[in-house]
Design goal:
Blueprint: H1 6-14, E1 22-30, E2 34-39, E3 43-48, H2 56-59, E4 64-70, E5 77-81, H3 82-99, E6 103-112, E7 115-120, E8 123-128, E9 146-155, E10 160-164, H4 165-182, E11 189-198, E12 201-205, E13 210-214, E14 235-244, E15 249-253, H5 255-258, H6 265-268, E16 274-283, E17 286-292, E18 295-300, E19 316-325, E20 330-334, H7 348-351, E21 357-359, E22 362-364
Parallel strand pairs: 3-5, 13-15, 18-20
Antiparallel strand pairs: 1-2, 1-4, 2-3, 4-5, 6-7, 6-9, 7-8, 9-10, 11-12, 11-14, 12-13, 14-15, 14-21, 16-17, 16-19, 17-18, 19-20, 21-22
Length: 380
């Protein structure tokens, strides 16, 4: 071995390696608990067996990269790790993804307390249960599920990576919504499933975009809550009447497809006609009777014969049409001279159907709307 001069020794120690430095390594020998390596053709190093990335690195004579994790020791030997270098690279990659608000595809490795454990290029990450959205998949079946996640928190020094599955899904939905809304126009008629039902209306799935049918646009008939006339998963046929592209909002109406029932009332009713309807509300001066969805008539107290009890909400009865004013949207009824028998020429069966709410492609009536009270909800 050639003798090392003082100048060479001085130069060597001036270029001493620092922790976290990336270095080039070459295998020299296999030891009991690891591997002896040459570092940068200048230093000796040691790699613990558990710090090799794969078995292929154990036998190769080709240089490979590693990261200094400690040293030098008393023998001027450094401890280096290919795995640690990969982990550092993973942190750099994930930090960039977080900065760019991008997602990454991962596979759940293990279910742990409070969530799931995931490895990304050798770096351990934690996915809290509150950030996991896997409907229909039990926690026991999370392992090996491939999902898209976004980085919620990351700290290399503390070796901390927190992932978020829900945020990635919401971001993907946002992208699809931005595409979908550009394809829609006011006046379009769509058929879409009900995603969820709220107090103020029903949300439809328009393909990554949630469209709202306000409660006031669901039915001409009375109802207490939107769930009385629609259900999750049901297909609604509706017309788009407003689009706010900047806010990704679409408002739809079922009623507009059905047409205003008052437009046809002059052709369906005439004075002196006997009709059948249900009392839907009471007032000091009389009761209101629904004779079809969207059409209510007043039975004034003065038109209830003496000895007959004032009808209560929910009661079905027959009455005579006294007056029709379609412009003012008013109909007056009377019970005088009416024996509660003989079916009405206009019945719930033939005029109360609202066929634009369907399930599995078939028509479905909104007769349930006659059973409940008038909404006071305003379109949001």
């Amino acid at each position: 071995m050639s003798r090392i001069t003082f100048e060479e020794l001085k130069t060597k120690y001036q270029s001493k390696l620092e922790k976290d430095n990336e270095v080039a390594c070459r295998l020299l020998a296999k030891l009991k608990d690891g591997y002896l390596v040459d570092i940068n053709n200048e230093w000796e190093g040691f790699i613990p067996a558990s710090h090799m990335n794969s078995s292929s690195e154990h036998d190769t004579q080709e240089p490979f990269q590693a990261m200094v994790i400690s040293g030098p020791d008393k023998s001027d030997r450094y401890m280096v790790s290919p795995k640690a270098l990969n982990e550092k690279s993973a942190y750099e990659k994930l930090t960039k993804l977080k900065e760019e608000n991008k997602s990454v595809k991962v596979t759940i490795s293990k279910v742990v307390k409070g969530g799931a454990e995931i490895y990304i290029d050798g770096a351990r990450a934690f996915l809290p249960g509150r950030y996991i959205r896997l409907p229909g998949v039990s926690q026991d079946n999370w392992v090996n599920q491939e999902i898209e996640v976004m980085v919620e928190e990351i700290d290399y020094k503390q070796k901390k990576i927190i992932l978020n599955h829900k945020k990635a899904q919401d971001a993907e939905k946002q992208k699809r919504a931005e595409v979908t809304i550009q394809q829609l126009n006011e006046g379009d008629i769509v058929e879409a499933p009900v995603l969820r039902i709220a107090d103020f209306g029903v949300f439809l799935d328009l393909g990554g975009l949630d469209g709202l049918v306000p409660a006031s646009e669901l039915s001409w008939g009375r109802f207490t809550h939107p769930k009385d006339v629609a259900r999750t998963g049901q297909i609604l046929k509706a017309k788009i009447f407003r689009i706010e592209k900047d806010n990704l909002r679409v408002a739809l109406s079922v009623k507009q497809l059905l047409g205003d029932p008052w437009n046809q009332i002059d052709h369906e009713l005439e004075t002196e006609q006997i009709i059948e309807g249900k009392v839907v509300s009471e007032a000091p001066f009389g009761v209101f009777i629904q004779i079809k969805p969207g059409i209510e008539a007043l039975l004034h107290n003065s038109e209830i014969p003496e000895g007959i009890e004032k009808p209560k909400t929910g009661k079905t009865l027959k009455a005579k049409v006294l007056k029709i004013d379609s412009e003012q949207r008013k109909i007056a009824l009377s019970l005088k001279g009416i024996e509660q028998q003989n079916p009405s020429p206009i019945t719930n069966e033939n005029i109360n159907s609202e066929p634009h709410i369907t399930s599995n492609g078939s028509n479905q009536s909104l007769d349930t709307a006659q059973e409940v009270e008038d909404p006071t909800l305003i379109a949001q």
